[in-house]
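@channel sequence for tomorrow's demo:
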Amino acid sequence: MQIWVDADACPGVIKEILYRVADRVQVPLVLVANQWLRVPPSRFIRTLQVEKGFDVADNRIVAGVEPGDLVITADIPLAAAVIDKDAHALNPRGEFYSRENIRQLLDMRNFMDTLRSSGVETGGPPAFGHADRQTFANQLDRFLARNRA
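structure tokens (generated this afternoon):
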């Protein structure tokens, strides 16, 4: 199992949690971004820099992900593609995407896009806070306990 990170939009505090986890449980961590990333030296952490462009990083993650891998992303279409490959997807706020909820989340995302494109102010997500960081860390720990045995 590997952990893949959609790293361009991933909060720094989440990346820090992932760096520590990769070394602690000795799981490969791959950060995919269209920019250079500074990561701590570790034999378990690597970066893949891809070209700039729409969905280039997402496509690289989908191409590399294997069944059972974990992908960290807030990108719902990427999560759907990952789930279709029998992998797992967790967003930085600690919420798992699943076969049961992904279609509804895609529909809501598309609806909100339609509203925004018609000029409706929809606002954004709430600020990322300590509770989000804690929820993410707890969900990640539970996932690894279940899937690394």
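heads up for whoever presents: The mean pLDDT is 90.
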